[in-house]
Structure formats: structure tokens, C-alpha cells
Amino acid sequence: MLDFGHTLVNYEADEAALLESYRDIHAYLGMAGISREPIPDDLMLQVFRRLSEVITQSYTDGQIEELDCLAIYDDAFRHLGYHLDRELLHKVLELDHRALASQFEVPEATLETLHQIRSRGFRVGIVSNATPTGSVMRHDLEVLGLAELIDAASYSSEVGYRKPHPRIYMSVTEALGVRPEACLFVGDRVKEDVIGSQALGMRAVLSHEFRQEDPASAQPTAVIKSFPELLAVLDWLEKPGARRSAAGGRRQRPSA
Fold it and tell me: Which residue, among 65, 29, 33, has the nearest Cα to 47 in the 3D structure?
């Protein structure tokens, strides 16, 4: 199983590029008549900053329940003096995330590695802490060329809980039809991706490709500097005795 942001893709946005891509959203809001005044050129950038503050603070506070995406968009617009109905908020959320996702790119080496993993018979799942709705996150998989390489995906916005809550991991193990002990989890966060998955019996790999969290007292199976290094980890796990199920003592092919 894989984390999404900062594991498969560098989940960072350049504000100058965002400002350029927000023009279409501003035009849409202007036609929707949300204000008698012209829409400020930086309106969506202000919304983006407000959302980032709220989401970051929720993580700082250790909140395990996922935020209601529409509610925080509503709060951000109201904070700036605009009132959008639910249908319009939904559309703006979709357009806003697509503007953000337009800056993302999965490295070609990562895509090739995923193809190799699939060709070796591994099933692949995504477990991601994501405030945007599952539908817009699945759109990301389509535009990034990942959809055909993923067997199951679960997002905290759908499950209601963020990693390291066990429910979000289990939703994917159930979809893949495997026990947690037969899974290998790969992600960039120590608490959410290493410790959280290990608590369920999974092995865990810490990725340092885009972010570099210190594993400290955690004990990941491996630390990789780039996604293709995962192939060597899988090779090692397939050696006799390296990977055994907790129940039967037989080697199992893990889900990446």
C-alpha cells in the first residue's frame, strides 16, 4: 500500500503558478454573481491560504477526524465576505483542486516502477490523508496516469478518519482482500505511514524522496531515497524466510 502526496508525487504548489491558473475560477465566480464588485485577482489565492492555515492547524492539534471540505471552503469564503451556495461551493472545490493538481507530476521512474510491481503480481492500494473529496482525488489518479496502476484507493475524506487511525488502512486491505500482515506500506510520514501501519502488522518503508522525516525510534523495514529503490526491498522480502504470515508461517506475496 502507498501513501499519495510526497510519496508518489511532490505535493507542493507554487503560488505564482496557482494565481495564473485561478483566472478561470474567478471568471466562473464572476458569472455566478457572488459579488457586485469585480472579483479580486487574488481571491482564490486568499482562499487557498485560509484553507492551508485551517488544515495545518488541525494536524498540529492532532485531529484524527477528517475535516468537512465543503465546510472549510464555506468558512474561507465567508471569512473574505462571500457567500456561496452548496452547489457552487462543490464546483469551486473541484475547479480549485484541479488547478492545484495541474502542477503535480509523477516522476517517470515512479510510473515505470509501478508497472514493474504490477507485472510481478503485486496488488497496489493507496491510503491517503486528503481533505478534498474522494471524487476529486480519483480525478488526480486519472490525470497523473496512475488510475490503471491502482487496485484500490482510500481517502480520509471518505473514511472520516486520518492515518494513523486503523480504519483507513483496513478499508484498503478489505478492498484488496488481504490481511494486514501480508502488506507492505510505503510513505513519507513516520507516525502516519510507518508506526500506524506497523501497529496493524504491516511492514513499512519510509520514503525520503520528497520529504525527509527522521525515523527516530521507529523501525521501518527500509528507508528509500527514490521510489524505484522499492524494487530492491521487494526482492529482499521475497527471499525465503524474509516474509511470513503471522497465522500460518507460510510466505505470502505482500501488497505494495
Answer: 29
Grid cell, residue 99, equals 488547478
In a shared domain, residues 151 and 211: yes
CA pair distance 22, 92, nearest whole angstrom: 10
Residue with cell 482510500: 154
**Most confident stretch, 87-101, 114-128, 238-252:** 114-128
Q: C-alpha distances in angstroms, 55 versus 69, 132, 212, 220?
A: 10, 11, 21, 27
Query: Per-residue pLDDT tens for 12-51?
Result: 777 777 787 888 899 999 999 999 899 999 999 999 899 9
pLDDT tens string 140-158:
999 999 999 999 999 999 9
Q: How far apart are CA 249 and CA 244, in angstroms?
A: 5
Compute the distance between CA of residue 27 and CA of residue 48 in angstroms, rounded to an integer.
17
Q: How would you class 58 by CB atoms within 10 Å of its CB: exposed for 0-12, middle for 13-18, buried for 19 or more?
A: middle
What's the first-to-final CA gap in the chain, in angstroms?
Answer: 4
The answer on 146 and 96 residing in a single domain is no
For the cut 70, the answer to whether the pLDDT of residue 247 exceeds it is no
What the block records as the C-alpha cell of 70 is 465543503
Describe the crossing of helices 23-32 and 43-60 by its angle, rounded to 10 degrees. Answer: 100
What is the domain-level CATH number for residue 164?
3.40.50.1000
- pTM for the structure as a whole: 0.89
Are 231 and 117 within 8 A, CB to CB?
yes
> Which residue range is the domain that position 227 belongs to?
108-237
Residue 10 resides in a domain = no
d(CA 138, CA 159): 14
